[in-house]
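Hi R.,

Here's the chain you asked about this morning:
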Amino acid sequence: MVIRRMKPLGFTLDEMRALLDTTDRLDSGEELPRVDREQLLQRIRGFEQAAQQRVADLRTQLARAEEFATTLAERLTRTSAS
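And the predicted structure, written out as tokens:
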């Protein structure tokens, strides 16, 4: 499930593996030293920030694509009416 969600955002296989390793370690139930736990959480924060940025970039691309499609549709309407 995680991989299917990360793939459209352009994460590499190595990045996917790193996130899965991180979450597996946090979810393992083992008692982690505070420093290790904070490092793992910091990694997840980094992935979250990267995902948010990639979502923003995709929204920008989608807005540009929609604008382009609208421009083409308007051109077709004007040309058909002539």
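Helices lie at 2-6, 13-27, 34-81.

Let me know if you need anything else.
M.
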